[in-house]
Amino acid sequence: MRMAALPLRAVEVDPGTVGVAEVRAALTDRLDGDGAPFALIPRISRHITADYARMVTDAVRPGEPVEDPDTAIVVATSGSTGAPRGVLITRANLTTAVQASWRHIDGLRECSWVLALPVTSIGGFGALVRSHLAGTPLHVLPSIGGAEAFDPEALAALDVPEPFAISLVPRQITDILASPTATAWLARATAVIVGAAAMPDELADRARESGLRLVTTYGMTETTGGCVYDGVPLPGVTIDIVDGLIEVQGAQVAAGYRGGGGPFSGEGALRRFRTADHGEWHDGRLRVTGRVDDVVTVNGVNVALGAIEATIRPELGVVDVAVVAVPDDRLGHRVVAFVVLTDPARLSAIAPLVGERLGGAARPDVVHVDALPLLPNGKIDRRALAERAGRGS
User: Fold this and answer.
1) Nearest to residue 87, comparing CAs of 237, 246, 223?
2) Which of 111, 263, 287, 319 would disulfide-bridge 274, Cβ 3.0–4.6 Å?
């Protein structure tokens, strides 16, 4: 007999600790009581535009009921390269993901959690769930959700007894390593779980040399966050490479997209999600080598945008870089590298360097920027950069 659809509660999330309290209350009602499944929508603020809030609302569809009675929450994907999609995450997804991480990392079950990512993203929401299921304290950074700019010194000022763990994005690790005080504070953590974006090898090496117990993760909203830690699938997770693409199978794969569709198949522990990421196995560990949309054709030559970023990133004076491609009537695509530099005078050397190492087709137009645009979850807003590149600036 078909179960009745459940209404979906919309939770508009304010920046800062107030928003965290709202989400925590909704989570407690859903996991421990008879509360309704809910969707997270960031409230418009100086860091959240009306356009972004509208896209998230369209993705999660708060006015429509959900069919799966186990649905706990609908979370929007980041929308870093396109419009966000609402992902149906069940109570079983949440408990499976958390328990798998406890089995993988010694001592994680006993940790309190430091919340330094927005709870409207799976990374920040996951930290809240971990604290709730373990019954351990949650320590909230006041800047959460864009209430303020992320400040490593404010993080180090939090009075957090050991053992504790924290989830961060690579950009935050870069900022923390620039502060000896914050680095020493973070070195006390049982685990520093890093996700949302690829972690450059050089940055990971520096973090570990500085004493951080770094855990790099691979995963996405569709897999209830990280499902591969340091290249190793979590217990209960199976990774297959099919036609060069990574497929994830396990009970932490989400129930699907709002409105259906997408590369989901199977049920329960056999639930499978076909990603858009290319991968390979190297010494028994998963290595992500790029995305389907990472390779574009320039004048008949295939060009990998990630390879261009990897070539530029280690160069002296490069603080950050993002490479995008836009359609071009003559070449097929035009490649544009947005670069943050300590010395803008070095800008002219970047394009020839890429051309020498990767070939002339990969040689990008190079634009100096003071900072790269970010989404609320800390990912680079590549959609905004592509729009800027399309305008020719």
Assistant:
1) 223
2) 263
Strand, coil or helix: 62: coil
Residue whose pair of structure tokens reads 């089995």 in the numeric block: 103
Report the C-alpha gap between 56 and 304 in whole angstroms: 29
Encoded tokens for 132: 């709730």
Alpha carbons 161 and 164: distance in angstroms, whole number = 7
Confidence at 79, pLDDT banded by 50, 70, 90: low
Tell me: do 169 and 233 sit in the same domain. Answer: yes
49 and 165: one domain? Answer: yes
Q: What is the rounded CA–CA span in Å between residue 371 and residue 45? A: 20
Look up residue 208 and give its amino acid: R
Q: Which two tokens stand for residue 134?
A: 């373990």
The CA distances from residue 28 to 13, 21, 154, 258, in Å, are: 16, 11, 28, 23
DSSP code per residue over 208-248: HHTT--EEEEEEEGGGTEEEEETTEEPTT-EEEEETTEEEE
Assigned domain for 294 exists: no
Determine the length of the chain: 393
Cα–Cα distance measured from residue 391 to residue 393, given in angstroms and rounded to the nearest whole number? 6
114 and 181 both lie in a single domain: yes
237 in the same domain as 129: yes
Using alpha carbons, select from 174, 138, 139, 172 the residue that is nearest to residue 157.
139
Q: How many domains does the chain have?
A: 2
Which residue range(s) make up the domain with 203?
Answer: 9-289
CA 63, CA 97: separation in Å to the nearest integer? 28
Q: What is the mean pLDDT of residues 292-308?
A: 81
Beta strands in 21-163 (DSSP E): 38-42, 71-76, 86-90, 112-115, 138-140
Same domain, 285 and 180: yes
Q: How far apart are CA 75 and CA 276, in angstroms?
A: 19
C-alpha Rg value of the chain to the nearest Å: 21
Q: What is the pLDDT of residue 242?
A: 94
Q: Classify residue 228: in a domain, yes or no.
A: yes
Note whether 271 and 341 are same-domain residues: no
Task: Among 44-48, 141-145, 156-160, 338-342, name the most confident range.
Answer: 156-160
